[in-house]
Specification:
The chain is of the alpha/beta class and 391 residues long. The protein starts with a strand and ends in an 11-residue tail after the last helix. It is globular and about 50 Å long. Strands 1, 2, 3, 4, 5, 6, 7, 8 and 9 form a 9-stranded mixed β-sheet that branches. A 6-stranded parallel β-sheet has the order 10-11-12-15-16-17.
Length: 391
């Protein structure tokens, strides 16, 4: 077997990042650590290089949790990409990996290599990069600005108790911070974790531990899960599901990539046949509404290549079908902070058809989001307590 030499180069704006190696992971490279832990300051990027020397080429395939970070791959040396975009490394070369924008830590970047001629064979080596943010923690408290003041006044006038049902415990956000935010703002906080094969939590023991920890902070704080696999209700035991107050889902993961990983729609850059895709996506949305969920988050979402075609693709017939099923199943339709979805026509139809609305921020870290959209929807739709979903 050829000898691999790893060169680690960390480039950060302002201050230098620190790195440490961890051994003992499965399929660790023989001569280098299986896990590289990197600390970075907020706003900094992280870069490192994998350099290989030898006479036999290897294929490096990079995988990463695209929900948590953007990764740029740049290979230099004797190499080329195959049809699937994988990097075929030649006799020598360097694979540079830059974790750049949208880093919601801890982020994971996983690499695996195999000989190019071993098609269909599992990678025999792997390396994991984990990026943590260090430095001053972000404040979870909402600023005392005009929007938040008017939102509080409007809800008090209408008798609406606002709850953020889409509050993730990730990127440094903790149940303790959520509880602190609730005390300061008067907006009820929740604690929610993602569940799925490609996520941190994918077994009942971790789900139960998360629910227990959250309730230790505040026994009255609702605890939920966001489900990302379409067979989730077959994988989670009924007694485990009973530990949670609500289940949230969105439509933003549909199908698989050639690599076998989930197809995250917010990463899609091209859709050759929008009409055919929309037929599949509408069916995908309707199937999710048949699952035992509580909230449909970000309804009528479209990936970036189709965002300008919203009015044509989301016909009134399709909108009415989604709303009717949500009403029938008792599923709330989310009004999400800082999201353009759903558009006003959908919201108006949903109100007329008797749908219940929920509110959410879909945070990536403790930073408060702009709640203007919540305020606009409440006033424009003239929402009353009966229009707002509760478990």
């Amino acid at each position: 077997m050829k000898t691999l030499c790893m060169v680690v180069a960390l480039v950060a704006a302002g201050t230098s990042a620190a790195a440490q190696f961890k051994n003992g992971t499965a399929f660790a490279l023989k001569d280098v650590p299986g896990e590289l832990v990197v600390e970075r300051r907020a706003g900094e990027s992280v870069r490192f290089a994998l350099e290989e020397n030898g006479t036999t080429g290897y294929l490096w395939a990079a995988e990463w949790n695209t929900n948590e970070c953007d990764v740029v791959l740049d290979h230099r040396g004797a190499a080329a990409k195959n049809a699937r975009g994988e990097l075929l490394c030649g006799a020598a070369g360097t694979l540079d990996v830059a974790v750049t924008s949208k880093i919601y830590t801890p982020a994971r970047v996983e690499f695996a290599y195999r000989r190019p001629w071993e098609k269909g064979v599992k990678p025999i080596r792997a390396l994991k990069l984990i990026v943590y943010t260090v430095g001053e923690a972000k404040s979870p408290i909402y600023p005392k600005n005009a929007v938040n003041r008017l939102l509080k006044e409007e809800c008090a006038k209408r008798g609406i108790v606002l709850t953020d049902w889409h509050l993730h415990v990730r990127g440094g956000m903790t149940p303790e911070m959520a509880h602190e935010r609730e005390k300061e703002s008067g907006i009820r906080s929740t604690a929610m974790e993602n569940h799925g094969r490609e996520w941190e939590i994918y077994d009942d023991a971790k789900l139960v531990a998360f629910a227990k920890r959250s309730r230790q902070v505040n026994p009255k704080m609702p605890v939920g899960i966001q489900v990302n696999d379409r067979d989730w209700f077959e994988k989670i035991a009924p007694e485990t599901r009973a530990q949670f107050d609500y289940v949230l889902a969105d439509t933003m993961i549909m199908g698989k990539l050639p690599s076998g990983r989930d197809n995250r729609l917010w990463m899609v850059k091209e859709i050759p046949d929008p009409d055919k895709w929309m037929e599949d996506y509408f069916a995908h949305t309707m199937r999710i509404l048949d699952e035992p969920i509580s909230i449909l988050a970000n309804p009528t979402y479209l990936p970036e290549p189709l965002a300008g075609d919203y009015d044509r693709l989301w016909t009134e017939e399709r909108m009415r079908a989604v709303i009717a099923k949500a009403v029938k199943k008792g599923v709330a339709l989310e009004i999400q902070a800082e999201s353009p979805y759903p558009r006003p026509k959908f919201l108006k139809l949903a109100k007329e058809m008797g749908a219940k609305f929920s509110f959410g921020t879909n945070n990536f870290d403790p930073s408060p989001k702009d709640l203007s959209r919540w305020l606009e929807a409440i006033v424009w739709l003239d929402l009353k307590p009966a229009d707002v979903w509760t478990p």
